[in-house]
Structure formats: C-alpha cells, structure tokens
Amino acid sequence: MPLRIVFCGTPAFAVPSLRHLKAQSGFEIVGIVTQPDRPRGRGQELAMPAVKAAALELGLDVYQPQKIKTDDAFEYFQRLAPDVVAIIAYGQIISQRLLDIPRLGWINLHASLLPRYRGAAPINWAIINGESHTGLTTMRIDAGLDTGPTLLRHKTEIGRDETAPELTARLAEAGAPLIAETLRRLDRGEVEPLPQRDSVASYAPPLRKQDSRIDWQLPADQIYNRIRGLEPWPGAFTTFRGKTCRIWGHPLSIKDFPQPANAASRLVLKPSVSMPSDSPGAIRLHGSLICIHGAGGGLVLTFAQLEGRKRVTAQEFASGAHLTPSDRFGD
C-alpha cells in the first residue's frame, strides 16, 4: 500500500518537494496543510501561500488553520490518519498530541547541516557568517526547536557570490529527492535516527530590520556577506546625508584600486573638506569604479536605493547626488 502523507509547508522553498512527492510511486498525498492567505504588497490584497497555489494546481485538498494547535486541526489529522507528515518551512510550532498521530512521525527538511543553524533563517545566517558550506538535513520533529534526531543529509558549497535567494532555490531543488528518499528508507526501516549533539549547536534566528545596518568598521568581505545574506529582505542598508540607503556591491581590496595621478582625475566634485582615503564609509572614485572604503578593504558600489526612491546604478546615484569629497555612507 502507498505511504499516506500529509504535506505541511508554506513558502516557495517547499514547492519542489511537494511536486516531487506527488510524482513518486508508492506515495499518496492525502492532505495539504499551509498557512492562511495573507495581505501582501502595497495594495495589501490577499495572496495565497506558494504551497497552496501548487497544491491547487496538482488537484490536492488544502487545509489552512489559523492555529495548528486547535481541536479542529487535531481532528483533521486524526481523520486523515497519515503514516507520516512531511513538514517543510510551515511556520508554526507543532504540539505533542499532533506529533504522536503518524506512525513514522513528522519528518522535517531543514536547510542546514544540523545541529548547525537551528531556527528560522539558516540560509541567510550561513551566508552572513561567511560559511563556505551548508546543506540540508531531514529530521524527526520533537518538542524542541529543530532538536529532533536527524535522518539524512546533503552537503553543498556556498558560491562566493551566491545570494540568499539563489542558495534557497538551489537547496529547494536538492531537498525534493532527499525528503523522498528519507520517507522511503524510514518506512523500510533502513535509516536510524541519530540524536543531535547540543554542545555544537548554533542558531539562526528570524531576520530583523536592525540586522540590516552596515557597520563600515567591518572588513569588506564581511559587509559583502551581509549584503548577500540579507537579500531580498530586509536588505543591507546604511545612511547617506541623513537618509536610509540600501546598497549593493562587491568587495575589492584597496591595493587593487588604481590611484589617480592628481585630484582632478579622481572626480570633478564641489569643493569641500577632503576625507582620509581610509575613513570607513568614505565614497571615492577609482577609475570608473565608485567605491566605499571600509576597514581593511573597499566595497565597489553597483546599485543604491535612497529611501522613497527607486533603485539606480552606482553611476546614476553618484551623478544624481552631486557627490563631494566629504560625502560618506553611515554619516
């Protein structure tokens, strides 16, 4: 008989796994549980979660409880009597009485190599912290926060210039066959759950707006990691002339910048008091590059977006701002 699965998930990250499980022989998806539709965008119109949209396309029934700890949700799972629940980025804590219903438990696909980066934003924090590798782990959920015993793993390198959305998309695709293999091997008794070592655990808390502010005292590589890891939200920001400004760029060592022969060849700017070239946040031109000086390196600006305005190229920003030698980010 096919394995009866309730699929529980919300964002686009879970969709490849849903589609993959639906296409496999030996599996029967008997229900989809996802978050309620939420207002989105400037118009605040109701929008369905990505998992719901995919489920409806696949002809699957969708259940959207406001809270999954209610009696109604408990009765829903009891009525469907799944062998297992596959849960991926659902977004709510699961009560013990729900965990006890399926005979194989609730199997989670987590976007890190557990016990590293437990929590809500493992992909973002792995990039922000400059990790060279990350991966995926399947685990059986328990009452803790990503503390349950692990099952299978998939390890991958993080690209030098890879952003959080790019890595998320890549891991989402890699996770689909991993969750399917986990469910098959678990059902056949071919995988032994391994307890996690709490002593080496680390955490990836939800992203906050205050995590986005750039510290220009940091090396350029660390600033670049923050820019990559905070895409698309909340984005890395600084200030410019007292206003918030989101920026995009990549690091380049100061020693690699061509030095201008004289001040005039640097840039025609309004007369002003000059800043030291190594002052953190100072904006300088090096050839055709618009650079921001940090501690122990520089960041080549590619795009900027002042609050209340659209995103523009670095050259458009410099031209529109009429830069002076005293201008700096993080003022």
Question: What features would you highlight for this structure?
Answer:
Rossmann fold; 25% strand; Methionyl-tRNA Fmet Formyltransferase, Chain A, domain 2; alpha/beta; 25% helix; six-stranded antiparallel β-sheet; 331 residues; single chain; seven-stranded mixed β-sheet; elongated
In short:
This protein is an alpha/beta fold. The chain contains nine helices and 15 strands.
Question: What does this protein structure show overall?
Answer:
- There is one protein chain.
- This protein has helices spanning 15-23, 50-57, 71-80, 96-99, 122-128, 164-187, 220-229, 263-266, 314-321; strands spanning 3-9, 27-33, 38-40, 45-47, 62-63, 84-88, 106-110, 133-140, 150-157, 237-240, 243-252, 283-286, 289-294, 297-306, 312-313.
- The protein has nine helices and 15 strands.
- A seven-stranded mixed beta sheet has the order 5-2-1-6-7-8-9. Strands 10, 11, 12, 13, 14 and 15 form a six-stranded antiparallel beta sheet that branches.
- A hairpin with a 2-residue loop joins strand 12 and strand 13.
- The relative contact order is 0.11.
- By secondary structure, the protein is an alpha/beta fold.
Shape: elongated
The CATH architecture category of the largest domain equals: 3-Layer(aba) Sandwich
CATH class of the largest domain: Alpha Beta
In angstroms, what separates the terminal alpha carbons?
66 Å
Remind me, CATH topology of the largest domain? Rossmann fold
State the major sheet: 7 strands, mixed
Parts with pLDDT < 50 across at least 5 consecutive residues: 260-276
- Mean of pLDDT: 91
Helicity level:
25-40%
N-to-C series of helices and strands:
EHEEEHEHEHEHEEHHEEHEEEEH
Structural class: alpha/beta
Radius of gyration: 24 Å
Q: Helical element count?
A: 9
